[in-house]
Amino acid sequence: MNRDVIVEYVPLYVEALGRTVHIGLVGILGAILLGLGSSLILYFQVKGFRRLTRAYIELFRNTPLLVQLFFLYFGLPKLGLRITADFCGMLGLALIGGSYMAETFRSGLEAVDRIQFESAKSLGMSPWQTFFYVILPQAVSTSVPGFVANMIFLLKETSVFSAISVMDLMFTAKDLIGMEYKTMEALTLLVVFYLIMLLPVSVLGSLVERRVRYGSYGD
User: Fold this and answer.
1) Domains in the chain, number
2) Which of 133, 139, 186, 190 could crosslink 109 through cysteines, CB 3.0-4.6 Å?
3) Which domain does 115 fall in, by range?
4) pTM, whole model, 2 decimals?
């Protein structure tokens, strides 16, 4: 293990970490919006969109992200749609993440007892007030563990972006190994920087989960 080599490589990994986090966060934001919209369609049984939404979820949950990225990056240009590698990564992450988030949010919504609709109605609340002030807060509380797990999963999935030439952490490690043959140093830094990216999410997620769990008991 050559420490001088590690010190030399660190700036490259810092730059790659910034790009990985940027793509990951944008993709996760898209996944949250897509997943929330899909879960509401399924929960309220919106006619005309329910089957289409279910087909989308099953398609993207049951195919690898790498295959989806290849289709987006190499297949779309055949249809006249050219996108950059970074945007392809964001889009792919949003699509596969949205399918997982949809099921997480839907399970949270369905965990809330339907009788609470009747209770809210008896208090004079409108359907939208009932949903936003009674159902949604409880559903979010229930969904936090799955939501955090999905975030960690999606950030780890960024490791396949190197296959479409996104200069992320994995691409940087593979590039340095191929050029310098410093396998141990490159892989050690790869592990360290993935921990730097993922551990804060895990710790913060645990704190949020504990907080909302206490909140549900009036603490």
Assistant:
1) 1
2) 139
3) 3-215
4) 0.86
